[in-house]
Amino acid sequence: MLTKRYEVQKGPEGYLPPAAAMMGIVPSEPGTSLVEGQMVLQETAMEKVADALLQAKNPVFFPGPLILWAWKEGVEEKAQAIKELADAAGAKIIPMPDYRPKYPMINPEIEINPNHPNLTIWHNNIDVCLFVGVHCHYANIALKLIRGGTDCYTIALCAEAGHEDAMISLRDVGLDQIRQITEIVKKRKETQK
């Protein structure tokens, strides 16, 4: 039995970190988000996302196929909003266009492999990463691997129910939420001048 509430923190947590769900972390309710395993208001989480991105030495966005390919109406506009957020935060972008394993080698300078995301994190010295447009089952695996083997702070902007294994996880993220985070980032940068 747990005596202390489990917190989803940066790793490395070990070769086999426990899934956050097994440690009692549940998906957030609509209108809320998860910050380090604790349910908070979505606006609070958006502010934490902005702070994490702006405090990072090397923030990197990992957009997946759901945002990279114009597979339905509205995706191109959402992708442009993500690019604007990355630009506002001074973040690099490493796309994750395909989940198939790239064996025997991947080039960690230009891509992330969901089966070995730690290589890309280590090789690029990434201290904060943001997943967006990644299918949930792949995001969950990659986020757990990142937490297990690196000290990278993870953020997930999910269009569905969110990801317990991210340090910050926003659910039901659409164009409005992305633009709202971008505005928070811009305002924070103005006050830092």
Show the helix and strand layout.
Elements: E1 32-35, E2 38-41, H1 42-55, E3 59-63, H2 65-68, H3 75-89, E4 92-93, H4 117-123, E5 128-132, H5 136-149, E6 153-157, E7 168-170, H6 175-192
Parallel strand pairs: 3-4, 3-5, 5-6, 6-7
Antiparallel strand pairs: 1-2, 1-7
Helix pairs in contact: 1-6, 3-6
**Percent of residues in beta strands:** 5-15%
Number of structural domains: 1
CATH fold node name: Rossmann fold
* Count of DSSP H/I helices: 6
**Radius of gyration, CA atoms, in whole angstroms:** 16 Å
Q: Span between N and C termini?
A: 48 Å
Shape: globular
Poorly predicted spans: none
Percent helix, as a range, is 25-40%
Looking at the overall shape, the CATH architecture is: 3-Layer(aba) Sandwich
CATH class bucket = Alpha Beta
Task: Tell me the name of the CATH homologous superfamily.
Answer: TPP-binding domain
Q: Which structural class matches the secondary elements? A: alpha/beta
Mean pLDDT: 88
Largest sheet: 7 strands, mixed
Strand order, largest beta sheet: 2-1-7-6-5-3-4
Got a strand count? 7
Following the backbone from N to C, one meets helices and strands in this order, namely: EEHEHHEHEHEEH
